[in-house]
User: Fold this.
Amino acid sequence: MREANPLWGAPRIHGELQKLGIEVSQATVAKYLGRSGGPASQSWRTFLTNHVAQLASIDFFTVPTAIFRVLFVCVVLSHDRRRIVHVNVTAHPTAAWTAQQLREAWPWDIAPRFIIRDRDRIYGEESRRTMQADGRRRSADGASFSLAESVC
Assistant:
């Protein structure tokens, strides 16, 4: 059954066997089914080690002022030398402003291949388009532009 339907997992095959009147537990099916023959994926640590020269991170943090205003600080870090590439401050961050910060961080087409970020809404669709237009790839989970589409 597995050879004819390679995308079926143990729960699906267990259900099909029950339809045929074969009484077997799902755990037994999973035990004898084994893992699919796909390639082993690399760990997050291995990915970071292998691609450190092509990595950058972007994040925001807040700073309260003396007059009780809150400022948002955008920081872009390069992982290869562990240095700050770009920093800027605003009172009202928007997706357009964030996209502009990415363009200012790497103005001469020397942008890193992978950008790590969190799921903050401040990045928005415009930042996503800016990152993709520069040739960066998006992760499968959508959390960052750090991994190839087939990984994550």
In short: Confidence is low (pLDDT under 50) at residues 137-152.
